[in-house]
Amino acid sequence: MVMPQELPTARCPVAFDHNSPEHTARGPLEVYRELRNSTPVAWSESNGGYWVVTSYAEVSEVLRDAVTYTSGAATDDAGNYSGGIFVPAERGLVPMIPTEVDNPQWEDFRRLLAPRFSPTAVWDYRPMIAELTTHYVDQVIEAGECDLAVDIAAAIPASSVLQLLGIDVAEWATYSEPFHNALGYPPGSPEYAEAVTGLQGIVERIRELIARRRRDPGADLISHVASAEIGGAPIDDEAAMSVVYTLFSGGVDTTTTLLANAFAYLSRHPEAREFLVSDLSRLPVATEEFMRMFTPVQALARTVRKPAVLGGQVLSPGERVLLSYASANRDEATFPRADECVMDRMPNKHVSWGLGLHRCLGSHLARTQVELILSEVLTRMPDFSIDEQRSRQYPNLGIVNGWVTMPATFTPGRRLSTRGAA
Ligand code: HEM
Which domains does the chain have, with CATH numbers? Predict the structure, then answer.
């Protein structure tokens, strides 16, 4: 085994900043390809200095070792945020639970949430998600045009998460917009500032909802969290708020991003669309390939907790490490024909759900949402065609590979549901 003291500690910094306009303008995949081929564990002086990890082997190594690499976040008395899953740390606004806690606390929180997100639990949510899907497709089907990114990809996942939390689904946009904009716009932009204010408003609303459910509990997820015991004592208000905030954050941007990218791909590749339309049972396998190709969450961070060697580099405690899931997913050493969307690719060991301790809690829910939504769209509006000129991705693709807008047209159809407008 190579010991840290045997390795050269001199760093040759690379020019890299995933939050910069250049990163998005050049195309994240191109930037990552260069790094992966030259310096898979590279040091950048941007954002206060951080490591950037781009190879599948090393991204997986870090994700599987939550002892050496912590996700833990902390806020000091002055409100300064440190650690956590973002670089720079200040991009985090509320310590997210369970995402940004280590063991032993992590296990308590994960145990609290896991039964509500298990395959069995999610199976019971299918009728609710299917009904919402039919409802939102009904809203646009007669017009023969819609914004696929907003009216379908954003509305349905956000509404189903709101429904699980016990919140009126008509409020889906109020809850989801600040999350989209906080990740889709660069810090310093007016949209980002507005999103931060919006998120602060959401934190306050969550606090009120928790207080209300403590007084008057129901069967919903907020009541479940509000009445939990953690470490043998009732969960405190701040922890309950953080858990609910994390469920919003995990639930409103990610599935949306996957769907929007799948719509764009299927609109541009008629043969891939036909492959699915002719046999919808191919959707689950194809969804995993969309996950690999489009990697909704592009990159998240850890903090080094003890001296480590990674890809021949010496990492010191306190240093930040950005893990590029997007790059790992295109690593030719792991994925043959890595840049091709192979709709029936199996096995498919992509890292888009994360890996190890913090692997996505909502993966079964997200898979079900994607399967039901894609299958309804491919059945009821199979000839949809996106307007390439007017479609726009997030101005900042450093963290989420999202879309602001995706106008589309299709042959009009008839409404199916009797549910009122949301
Ligand atoms: C396509 C959709 C989704 C993607 C791509 C995605 C991606 C991820 C990733 C990459 C992580 C790991 C974070 C890390 O390594 O630090 C994660 C964790 C998590 N996700 Fe998801 N997610 C999706 C859907 C959802 C949904 C629908 C929910 C719930 C409503 C959810 C809730 C969570 C939670 C609570 C965690 C933290 C798990 C823990 O720390 O134990 N996610 N997700």
Answer: 13-409 (1.10.630.10)
